[in-house]
Amino acid sequence: MAHVPASERRPQLVRAAIDLMTREGVGAGSTRAIAAELGVAQATVHYTFGTKKDLYRAVVEELTAQVVCQVAAAAPDHGPFAEQVRTLGYALWQALTSAPDRFALCQELTSLSLRDPELREIMRELQYDLERTATGMITSLAEQHGVELAMPAEQVAPLFLAGIDGLMTRYLVLRQDGQDPGEETLPLLDALVNGVMSVCLGV
Predict the structure, then answer these.
(1) Three-class SS of residue 76?
(2) In sequence order, what are the residues at sequence separation of 6 or more whose Cβ sits closer than 8 angstroms to the Cβ of residue 72?
(3) Domains in the chain, ordered, with CATH?
């Protein structure tokens, strides 16, 4: 087999790990299984990541980057402040519901982190990164439109993300029961976005 540089092998292994754990759960993501998923030697996984913690961190970072890129790509460059914030909110929802099993993987990692200090550190960093990204987007839009926020963006961001997290958890539970909760969730998403806008504008 031809030698593959580490710079190329690393993203391949991350994708293989995500595919495997999305399909079979975090518990199935052993280095042996991930190596088999990609068709490489187990030693390749150890050489590339060193520790399981490094692998989990790479998986979480990739999952987060995919969502952030989708939202950023949908960011509007014109329109009123409220409409642009609404567009970003719906872009986030679309990014998550377009790959619900990957969100479920993040939820599984979050649950496991409650009893695993090393994994907890990774998930804490993920949470803060998401909040900083959302804070930056809200702040940028407010400055662009000359809007003075009634609540600091640093508080609005985690409030909104917590609401999205709750709606997505509900979406996953109902979806696994054989229902299609998409349409009935949209009014709830509307209410969440409207509530966030009220908090932003103090109305």
Answers:
(1) coil
(2) none
(3) 1-50 (1.10.10), 57-201 (1.10.357.10)
Biggest alpha carbon distance in the chain?
64
CA distances from 20 to 29, 157, 182 (A): 7, 31, 26
pLDDT digits (tens, 9 = 90+) for 59-111: 999 999 999 999 988 877 788 998 999 999 999 999 999 999 999 999 999 99
Rounded (5°) CA angle 145-71-68:
115
The end-to-end CA distance of the chain, in Å, is 64
Identify the pLDDT of residue 74.
85
Helix axes 100-113, 117-145, angle to 10 degrees: 130
Report the candidate in 110, 106, 129, 134 with the shortest Cα–Cα distance to residue 120: 110
For tokens 């998986």, the residue is: 59
Rounded (10°) CA dihedral 133, 134, 140, 143: -140
Q: Ramachandran region of residue 128, left (φ > 0), alpha (ψ -120 to 50) or beta?
A: alpha
Query: Where does the chain have alpha helices with state H?
Result: 6-24, 31-38, 42-49, 52-74, 81-97, 100-113, 117-145, 153-176, 182-201
